[in-house]
Amino acid sequence: MTITAVKTLDPVTVEIIRNALTSAADDMNATLIRSAYSPILYEGGDCVVALLDTEHRVLGQSAGLPLFLGNLETCSIAVEELYGRDVWKEGDVWILNDSYLGGTHLNDVTIFAPIFDDGAVVGFAATRAHWMDMGSKDVGGSMDATDIFQEGFRMGPVKLIEAGIETSVVDLIRTNVRFPYQTIGDMHAMIAALRMGTTRMKELVGRYGMDQLDAARDEIFRQTEEIERETVRNIPDGVYEAEGVLDNDGINLDTPIPIRLKITVSGDTVDFDVTGSADQTMGPVNCGAAQAVSALRVGYKLLVSPDSNSNGGSFRPLTTQVRSGSVLGAVAPAPCQWYFSHLGLLIDLVSKAMAPAMPERVASASHGDSMIITAAGFDPRFGRNFVTMEATLGGWGAWQGTDGESAMINNVNGSLKDLPIEMMETRYPFRINEYSIRPNSGGPGQWRGGNGVIREYEFLADCVVGLWFERSKTPAWGLFGGSDAQGPEVVFNPGRSDEVRTLKANARKVKAGDIVRLAVGGGGGFGDVSQRSRDEITYDIVNGFITEDFAKTHYGY
Length: 557
Fold this sequence. Notes:
With 557 residues, this protein is α+β, with helices and mostly antiparallel strands. Helices cover 29% and strands 22% of the residues. The chain has helices at residues 11-35, 39-42, 73-83, 99-102, 169-176, 180-233, 289-304, 341-354, 421-427, 534-542, 548-555; strands at residues 47-52, 58-61, 93-96, 108-117, 120-130, 158-162, 165-166, 238-246, 257-266, 269-273, 318-321, 372-379, 384-391, 430-437, 453-459, 463-468, 489-492, 500-501, 504-510, 515-519. A seven-stranded antiparallel sheet has the order 2-1-5-4-3-6-7, with helices on both faces. The protein is globular and about 70 Å long.
C-alpha cells in the first residue's frame, strides 16, 4: 500500500512542528496538574490532554494514562454527530462524562473546546481528569453498584461555557457532588489547560499558516502509518488467540468473567476481535466500547510502535471488533465504575496471543489491575469530611533479556503516580506503617518477574474503606517456560481475632486503630527457570527480591 502526503515539506520543518505539537500538549498537561485542587491530579497525575485537528485526529497528546489513548476525540465527534458541524462557536467549552460515549466511569470527566483563528475552527483542545466524587451512592464511587444511576451525576455532551460565560451546568455540578470546592477547582484547572492549548495552537497557526501546518500534519501521519504498517508486515499472517478471566463483577462473587481475544494478521493489517467476551455484568466492571478500543490500541502500540508518540496516523493498520451489550461494549444501564480491570487483562492478552509470532517483543503478564483502595469519612483533626483513592503498585512481567520491574503502576495507568506517604498522612487520618517490596511475588524464570508491594494502613479515625483488587484467578502468567507470579492478598487486622481476608469491599466500616494490609502480585517470569544463573539468583537473595527458601524451591539453589 502506497501512502502519499498531500504536500512535501522539508524534514526540518516537519520535525519542528511535530515537536511543537507534542510540547503544546505537555504545556497543557503541566497547566492542569499545577492548577488542580485534588491530590489525585496534582500528585497522581490522573489526567490526559490532547490537541486535535479539525477532523478530530490527534495532533499531540501528553504523557498520561495510556488507557485514554486515541480516546478523547470520541467526545468531540459525539457533539458533531448530535448537533452538526455548525455547533462549534468561539468561546464555548463542552463537558461530557457519559460512560457509554467516553467509555470510562463517571468520575472521568472530559472538557473540550474548539480552537478558532480568524473566525474559523483550526482544531480542538481536550482534557480528561478524574474527579473524586460524582454524587454516587457511596462517597467517591461504589464497588457494588448494579446500574449507572447509582454511580452518580451523568452528563452527555453539554456546554459548560457559552460565549465565554459559565452556564447553569456549573451549578448543577456544584449541587450534585460531595466536595464542590475541589471539584470546581479541578474543573477550572482543566479549562486553564484548554486555554493553554488554544494559545499554543494559535501561535503555530500564526507562525506557519494553516496550509503549512496541514501539510506537516499529513506528513507526520504518513510517516507514522508507514512505520506501523512495516512492522505489521513482518508479523507472520495468521490467527492468534488468548483468553483469561476476571475474578468476578463484585456482585456475583463466584462467577468469573471471561475475556477472549482473537487477533487476525493479514499483510499490513491487523484485526483485534473481542466479541467472544462475556456479556455485560450486573456488577460495575463494564465499559463503553470506546474504552475497549483504547485498551486494544495500547496492546497494539506496545508491540508495534512503543517508542513513538501517538497521532492521527497511529492505529491505521488496526481494526477492532467489540460487541454491543458485552462487558467491553456496555449499554445503559450497565454500571461502569471499575471499568479498567478487564482492560489491563486485555492488554496482557495481546502479548500472550502474539508471543509465538513476536517472541522478541512480548512480555509476560503484569500484575494487571489498579488494585484500588478508597477511604472516606470525617477527619476530626480538621473538622471536615474527606475522600481519597489510590492505585497500588505491583510487578511487571519479564521479557527476553530483562527482568520485570518491581513496584510499578499497572499498564493501563502509564505515568500515574502513587501518592506520597507524607502527603497522605498530612491530609488524611491514617498512618502508613509499611511500604515495601513484596519478596517472592514475581514469577521465576530465566528472567524473573518484577515484585509487587506491601502497603499497610493504620486508621486514626473511624471511616469507611473500599477495595477493588483483581487478578487472583488469572495472576500474571509466565511465557516461554517462565512461571506465574503470586496474586494479590488483602487482610484487615492481620493476626487479630477480627482478621478478615477479602479482595473487594464496599464502604466497609473501620474504627480508629484498625489496620488493612495490602499485598499486590508480581509479574510473570520469562524463559526456562533452569537457565537463570546462580549469580543472578544470589543477587536476588542479597537484595531481598526473593528469599533463600524460595530460591531452593524454584531454582534448585
